Amino acid sequence: MEELRYIPNIPDTDKKRIVVVGSGFAGLKFVRSMLRKNFQIVLLDKNNFHQFQPLLYQVATAGLEPSAISFPLRKILQNEQHIHFRIADVQAVKSELKEIETDIGTLKYDYLVLAMGASTNFYGQKKIEQTALSMKSAADAILIRNTILENFELALLQDTPEKAAKYLNIVLVGGGPTGVELAGAVAEMKKYIFPKDYPELDMSKMRIVLYQGSGSLLAGMSSKASARATRYLKNLGVEVNLDTRVLDYDGGCLKLSDGTTISSKTVIWAAGVIANQIDGISVSSMNPQQRIMVDRQNRAYGYHDIFAIGDLSLMKTPKYPHGHPQVAQVAIQQAKTLAGNLIRIKRNASLKSKDFEYRDKGSLATIGRNLAVADLPFVKLSGFLAWILWSFVHLFMIVGVKNRILIFMNWSWNYFTYDQSLRLLIRHKPSIINRSGSDPFCEIKLDEINTEVDVESV
Ligand SMILES: Cc1cc2nc3c(=O)[nH]c(=O)nc-3n(C[C@H](O)[C@H](O)[C@H](O)COP(=O)(O)OP(=O)(O)OC[C@H]3O[C@@H](n4cnc5c(N)ncnc54)[C@H](O)[C@@H]3O)c2cc1C
Predict the structure, then answer these.
(1) Cα dihedral 338, 343, 349, 351 sign
(2) Whose CA is nearest to atom 29 of ligand 1?
(3) Whose CA is nearest to atom 3 of ligand 1?
(4) Which of 111, 378, 407, 435 is the most buried (most CB within 10 A)?
(5) How far away, in angstroms, is 311 Cα from ligand 1 center?
(6) DSSP string covering 298-361, please?
């Protein structure tokens, strides 16, 4: 039998050990709320940085470098004697032993806080998963940036505008904030950047197409915000298709539920998320989207010492009978409440824990230069005012003063020059993409297509 290997250099102390898995909005806020509170904290994440997902779309469209929206965890945790960080992929929980298993070894916990977030949901469509792009990490965003730039270079090598169109067209699947913000940013590139960078290409042949399975964009926002966002996108030249589901994609051609097809080498899938899972959590504690069901104190159903916060968790309350939206504010507020409860329990075990209640501070989405929509508790804004608000809120939320300054400078530069200066095609190896342009061109046979995908908003 293989010997059990405990992760070294994490001492057993007289302090209760809290193991936190994930350093996104939820995990990081939790750890920061627990600084110097007389616990031993072990933070585990696959990456050694925290990333600000709401601005990933600007990395994907060459507006920001990934470093501007990422923050090294070790820097945040400097001088914290009782906090240990390890890069680790957490794979399983053994609740009966109060242990977790990771790719770097096993670790005991007194309390376990799961904050692993969610991944893109392809609804079991393997072919689409292999051929379409998604945007959940800085690496995904860089891949989108590279794919767009590479395809434009390939478009130049085609001998007819029809063949070139396949490399120019950009398709977005999912009309939530991710799809809408990306569509707007790409449309602005088409307007201000591509004609200058690629004067030999006929930009009128480039289509930016957004498909949404339901009848409106930004389903989590008001109907006014949704209507405005649709109008702004259309004014920017985006083809918005509502009530249209993607049936299949072969890497070159997309088949839609309205019977149409579109050829595109750049399809970005932003049509839903599924919670990141680890083994050992009982299936009866999860909903069909793998979210861990928790009580009002974020304690996982059926467990005493395991908590789940953020996108991974599903808490039903009278105000949110179907659970909270998977957004950053919910993750941050749950983390704060849980930290307060654990500190309270430590001080006096008989103290009652506080129930979580979400304070919705509003929702924002930007569509482009001077264009955004904002649903605030007492007022709905759109256009320039909403855009200014969006910019300040995002600058305020970014971790790190240097990142804030960097982003502010980048935005100012882009705003006044109408130019994003980061259109670099940085590749690990030369591309092995087919440069002949001879892929079958929208030749999907209809009888090969038999699955349907319900497109939801991210
Ligand atoms: C493109 C995009 C745009 C968005 N825009 C907005 C927006 O404008 N406003 C808003 O409020 N919300 C937005 N969201 C949603 C918001 O980012 C999430 O709600 C939020 O990140 C959830 O925080 P979290 O801590 O639960 O998960 P995450 O922030 O996703 O963090 C999860 C962490 O867990 C780690 N992890 C996962 N699995 C493992 C494992 N097995 N082992 C170790 N570590 C693991 C990951 O590396 C990651 O660091 C957006 C999301 C995306 C993808």
Answers:
(1) negative
(2) 24
(3) 54
(4) 407
(5) 7
(6) -BBTT-SSEEE-GGGEEE--SS-TT---SSHHHHHHHHHHHHHHHHHHHH-TTSPPPPP-----
Is residue 381 included in any domain, yes or no? yes
Average pLDDT value for residue range 29-35: 95
Same domain assignment for residues 433 and 323: no
pLDDT digits (tens, 9 = 90+) for 332-389: 999 999 999 999 988 877 667 899 999 999 999 999 999 999 999 989 999 999 999 9
Counting every residue written for the chain, the total comes to 458
Mapped onto helix, strand or coil, the DSSP state of residue 110 is coil
Distance 166 CA to ligand 1 centre (A): 32
For residues 230 and 315, membership in a common domain is answered with no
* Ligand 1 atom showing the smallest separation from residue 102 Cα: 42
By most ligand atoms within 8 Å of CB, the mutation choice from 114, 116, 298, 356 for ligand 1 is 116
Say whether pLDDT at 21 is over 50.
Answer: yes
CATH number at residue 342: 3.50.50.60
pLDDT digits (tens, 9 = 90+) for 114-127: 999 999 999 999 99
Whose C-alpha lies nearest to ligand 1, atom 12?
327
pLDDT, position 390: 94
- What lines the ligand 1 site, CB under 6 Å? 21-27, 44-47, 53-54, 56-57, 89-90, 115-117, 135-136, 177-178, 276, 278, 310-312, 326-329, 331
Residue 66: inside a domain, yes or no? no
CB 175 within 8 A of CB 242: yes
Q: Is residue 11 part of a domain?
A: no
Q: Which atom of ligand 1 is nearest to the CA of 117?
A: 27
Q: Is residue 295 part of a domain?
A: yes
**Residue 293: Cβ-neighbour burial (10 angstroms; 0-12, 13-18, 19+):** middle
| Beta carbons within 10 angstroms of residue 319's beta carbon | 9
Of residues 115 and 429, more confidently modeled: 115
Tell me, what's the pLDDT at 367? Answer: 95
One domain for residues 172 and 302: no
CATH number of the CATH domain containing 216: 3.50.50.100
Establish how many alpha carbons lie within 13 A of residue 314's alpha carbon, considering only the half-sphere containing its beta carbon: 18
pLDDT at position 401: 81
Number of domains in the chain: 2
Give the domain extent around 215. 126-270+362-448
